[in-house]
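does this look right to u?? adenosine-5'-diphosphate version
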Amino acid sequence: MLSVAGLRKRYGEVVALDGFELEVAPGEIVGLVGHNGAGKTTFARAVAALLRVDAGTVRVAGRPITPRRRRPGELGLAPQELALFPTTALENLRYAGRLYGLGRHTLAERIAETAEALGLTELLPRPVEDLSGGQQRRLHAAAAMLHRPRVLLLDEPTVGADPVTRELLLHAVRDLADRGTAVVYTTHYLPELEVLDATLAVADHGRVIARGSRAELLAALPGRVTLSFADGAGLVFPPDLSGHAGGLHGDDVVITAIDPAAAAARLLAANPEHAARLRSIALDAPSLDDLYRELLTRNGA
Ligand SMILES: Nc1ncnc2c1ncn2[C@@H]1O[C@H](COP(=O)(O)OP(=O)(O)O)[C@@H](O)[C@H]1O
Ligand SMILES: [Mg+2]
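got this back:
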């Protein structure tokens, strides 16, 4: 549905996009992740034809998008910075809907639906400045989703958002994808991408350096397990779980392993007396930071 090839954009000496490529299928949600300055926002703005790129192509459903040939109805962008007009929530949505070419009847229907999905119904008559930060975030996203675009770009939509906002937003995005929209969702939070059941694209220095399912990209990364014992004295470590892989911290054992659950089981099997006095066990899945670190090491950075 969205097909981006060879995007380049330079700001003076700064190369913001350096051959950025991304394909997104209908109904797919791509979690676009990467450190600040990786080019994610520039990419989103380029796809929405809000800036002129130096090279590359953007296609939606096979048709090219350029600043001259914008197709507002096909694309929705919720930019990283909040952009709302100082009027009511309802007027903001009406304005967005008209911009996207919705007729009067459809507009009213979609506003009602989208407001409901994002918990904005009661807030529609309120002036934007009276809304909380989270409510403004939801309104900002609603304005981009209202017209059910074929391609939806959300640039860090949950930064500083409260849990209610996050949950409503994630569900609304998943629903839209289930109707066939191709979504690019920028975030720094891996758990959100689990909820969205998103695939991953990792951006670095203006290009995508890794692309695949979460399972593919995270499988090779070690996780961590912490076991707390009533008394850790006298614990025996199997050879592969000592040194770098694991150690005793007070009465806690922390082990880092590709399969942390199996490692914990081996440690307990080797220490049956301690196992009987295990207090708690906690698994930490690999984080996005672990993924960046691994990719950057592998690419020799
Ligand atoms: N309008 C601009 N003028 C100059 N430099 C810019 C501009 N927009 C982005 N950049 C630079 O381009 C790079 C990529 O930025 P950006 O796309 O915002 O990254 P991200 O969203 O991944 O944090 C950064 O080095 C940033 O400073
Ligand atoms: Mg950004």
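The pocket of adenosine-5'-diphosphate (ligand 1) is lined by residues 11, 14, 16, 34, 36-42 (CB under 6 Å). idk if thats expected tbh
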